[in-house]
Amino acid sequence: MVIVQSMGDGRYAVPSSRDETRLYIVDLVGRTCTCPDFQHRRAGTNRGWCKHGIEVQAQAERLELIEKARRCSDEQIANLLPKYADDPMVSGALRVARAERKAEQQLLDVFA
């Protein structure tokens, strides 16, 4: 799985499949990508997305839910988990946010 990072405002950073230190920016709102395939072959045509745009579209909903869950308090997460137990996307995002906080706290405890 490719790790896609949200940059806000509908923009996402996606690593190159050939060089993971190189990132391409996919803009879902503007329907663009900075990769050579999109820039030279697809921009201004109706040929559709490059592989980076396709990957972002596949992950965008999950990433947005995780961002929303990160803004919830611990109490809100605890209250929302039972409510969304049957929704794997929402409950998964809530669990990710909770796990991130727990890991962060464990690191703070180690270095305290």
Keyphrases for this structure?
single chain, 112 residues, 2 domains, 4 helices, 4 strands, 54% helix
Q: What would you say this structure looks like, in words?
A:
With 112 residues, the protein is an alpha+beta fold. The protein folds into two domains: 1-59, no CATH class; 72-112. Helices cover 54% and strands 14% of the residues. It contains four helices and four strands. Strands 1-2-3-4 form a four-stranded antiparallel β-sheet. A hairpin with a 7-residue loop joins strand 2 and strand 3 (23-27). Helix 2 (51-70) crosses helix 4 and helix 3 runs antiparallel to helix 4. The model has no long low-confidence stretch (mean pLDDT 90).
Question: Structural class, from helix and strand content?
Answer: alpha+beta
* Count of domain modules: 2
The overall average pLDDT, rounded, is 90
Number of helices: 4
Largest beta sheet: what is the strand line-up?
1-2-3-4
Q: Could you give a short account of the major beta sheet?
A: 4 strands, antiparallel
Strand segment tally: 4
Query: How much helix, percentage-wise, in residues?
Result: 40-55%
Q: How much beta, percentage-wise?
A: 5-15%
State the separation between the terminal residues, measured CA to CA. 35 Å
Shape: elongated
Q: Please give the radius of gyration in angstroms.
A: 17 Å
Could you spell the SSE succession in H and E letters? EEEEHHHH
Which regions are unreliable across 5 or more consecutive residues at pLDDT < 50? none
